[in-house]
Amino acid sequence: MNVNSYIEHTLLSASATERDIIDHCNEAKTHKFYSVCINSCYVPLAKQLLKGSTIKICTVVGFPLGAASTESKVFEAKQAINDGAHEIDMVMNLGMFKSSNYVEVFKDIKDVKTAIGKTPLKVILEISELSKNGIVKASGICLDAKVDFIKTSTGFSKSGATLTAVKIIRKTVRKNCKIKASGGISDYKTARKYVDIGADRIGTSKGVEISNENNISSKLSTLINL
Fold it and tell me: β-strands 121-124, 35-38: how paired?
């Protein structure tokens, strides 16, 4: 399996420079990743760099805490799309969720989805902060809001994606929503496991390393079958 087509090549460091973004986009083109996932200030630059390629541009809103106002998330998402973003990853309002204010959580997500229309929206749950029941409940809210993807993690919390959480999400949403596993996925074997259990995308800053391992695995498989 070529996992490259699942990978959202991620660079969300606050200290990422223009040079870093240029290199990042070039890596995405070289390895034929699905997309780059970058901070919104660099979306216009990425649009120039990726012009004529098939690589999508994904950006984040309300990131990484999810505690911004709904109005600011809506504005940020719409501006990012105007600048050239193809997909939006927004962080769920975790504090509101833990307050059991599920109506506010739903409204926060739904207002962003309504504002961006057919542009794919991924909602980050931050699974490290949720119980199993919390993951199920949050996934249900996302389904009600008609999001396109549920994403496991920001990569900025105490831990990232887990196979268990992805299985819980998949069991909850079935085929009604896609899943992006993100956070701590750093090698081909692990990325492949996530794809095998139902992840539709892999968010990782280690895309190049995973791609290189993928190539080695493919070559070994070819040699074995000769």
Answer: unpaired
Q: DSSP per residue over 52-97, as a string? A: TSS-EEEEEESTTT--S-HHHHHHHHHHHHHHT-SEEEEE--HHHH
Q: 101 in helix, strand or coil?
A: coil
Residue carrying the six token digits 């997500």: 109
pLDDT tens by residue, 66-101: 999 999 999 999 999 999 999 999 999 999 999 999
CATH number of the domain encompassing residue 72: 3.20.20.70
Taking only the tens of pLDDT, the chain with its 226 residues reads 789 999 999 999 999 999 999 999 999 999 999 999 999 999 999 999 999 999 999 999 999 999 999 999 999 999 999 999 999 999 999 999 999 999 999 999 999 999 999 999 999 999 999 999 999 999 999 999 999 999 999 999 999 999 999 999 999 999 999 999 999 999 999 999 999 999 999 999 999 999 999 877 665 555 556 5
Q: Where are the beta strands (DSSP E) in the chain?
A: 7-11, 35-38, 56-61, 87-91, 121-124, 149-151, 178-182, 201-204
Q: Please report, as a single letter, which amino acid is at residue 45.
A: L
- Cβ(30)–Cβ(78) under 8 Å? no
Tell which residue, 185, 221, 188, has the closest CA to residue 204.
185
**Cα distance between residue 83 and residue 144, in whole Å:** 28
Q: Positive or negative, the Cα torsion across 35, 194, 180, 178?
A: positive
Cα separation of 19 and 120, whole Å?
A: 28
Which residues are the active-site residues? 89, 151, 180
Report the number of distinct structural domains present in the chain.
1
